């Protein structure tokens, strides 16, 4: 059974940074991301929907520039779940939100940086301005992803993260991790 790929690979008018798509998202967080139609799904929703299925795969064939963004976001969700799972006590929704917001704005490697784990599959940004644009875009997407992930993790109202999501905290998509 093949892995699930992004439906945004054929997105018209997608901006490229390196060989990765800059896709519109629905967000209230300030940043350079284009604004998506509020009635339609975006790459963040798609990542959350495909995370559990795709995290079971060790191989992933990249079929387009949106798949590269999908890979980074899936790896980021894995890091988020690991962060919540490594807490001494089970965090409340507010604590988890603070932890993940801090994680989303922490300094991270982008394609082309020495510490980026998937440099073989990503082209570096063309210029310094493109690299800064990509970093701020990914920061904005990570913040939005953290907000929506916490909403899904704590959707049952028990005050504890969903065991159906936390079961994936030790799974490593493509045997990789964005964290150090």
Poorly predicted segments: none
Helices, by number, come to 5
Strand content: under 5%
> What's the overall geometry?
globular
Number of strands: 2
- Oligomeric state of the chains? single chain
Roughly how much helix do the residues carry, as a percent range?
40-55%
Question: Strand count, sense and closure of the main sheet?
Answer: 2 strands, antiparallel
Characterize the structure shown:
With 180 residues, the protein is mainly alpha-helical. Helices cover 42% and strands 3% of the residues. It has helices at 43-54, 65-85, 93-105, 128-153, 163-166, and strands spanning 15-17, 20-22. The protein has a two-stranded antiparallel sheet with strand order 1-2. Helix 1 crosses helix 2 (65-85) and helix 3 packs antiparallel against helix 4. The chain is globular, with a radius of gyration of 16 Å.
Fold topology:
Blueprint: E1 15-17, E2 20-22, H1 43-54, H2 65-85, H3 93-105, H4 128-153, H5 163-166
Antiparallel strand pairs: 1-2
Helix pairs in contact: 1-2, 2-4, 3-4
In short:
The protein has 180 residues and is mainly alpha-helical. Helix content is 42%, strand content 3%.
Pick out its properties.
two-stranded antiparallel ribbon, globular, 42% helix, 180 residues, mainly alpha
